[in-house]
């Protein structure tokens, strides 16, 4: 099967301005994704999808040519991942290069490793829509998540007759690190309509996703701690 590894890196970031190329532990954030995927494939099968010249320059300094800059309609705050993925696949299809699988690696997961990506790929088969990385959630809907009912009172998000927290079913949340997607499925429907999905479980630290300044500070702490060992 032919696999395209897509690293989507839009220039605008409100939570942590310029985060995709901001230095984390001595190297640009996007370099963590690039370094993780390089051992798995040829450079020609790595696509940095960005609208920003500075991200393009940093990516190319990391050894990955950037084949295009995203058009403005794919660079807005409300631009969807679905459209960005199709745009990348179409770019290569126009050149006669057709991919069976699309692997999305967001730059905001610096603790995702080459081995994580390889293991997620090993779980994939063509009968699936997607293999997605997850971590076990602390916010279990059987115990700590509540919604307001019609009377304005809090009610459990998911009812269940469990006496102990440990007896509740394990619940998983997407951690944003790895999406292994059937390209044919993606062309039929967006990710949120997929039904044949398998999980790839990652531990809590590997699942850290940088979205806020606090996430950034925590990631710096983890990296500094590792470097001091």
TrEMBL record:
Keyword flag DNA damage: no
Keyword Zinc belongs to the record: no
Top-rank taxon: Bacteria
GO molecular function: N-acylneuraminate cytidylyltransferase activity
One protein family per Pfam: CTP_transf_3
Transmembrane intervals: none
Gene3D superfamilies: Spore Coat Polysaccharide Biosynthesis Protein SpsA, Chain A
InterPro entries documented for this protein: CMP-NeuNAc_synthase, Cytidylyl_trans, Nucleotide-diphossugar_trans
Keywords, ordered alphabetically: Nucleotidyltransferase, Transferase
Protein name listed in UniProt: Acylneuraminate cytidylyltransferase family protein
Taxonomic lineage of the native organism: Bacteria, Pseudomonadati, Bacteroidota, Chitinophagia, Chitinophagales
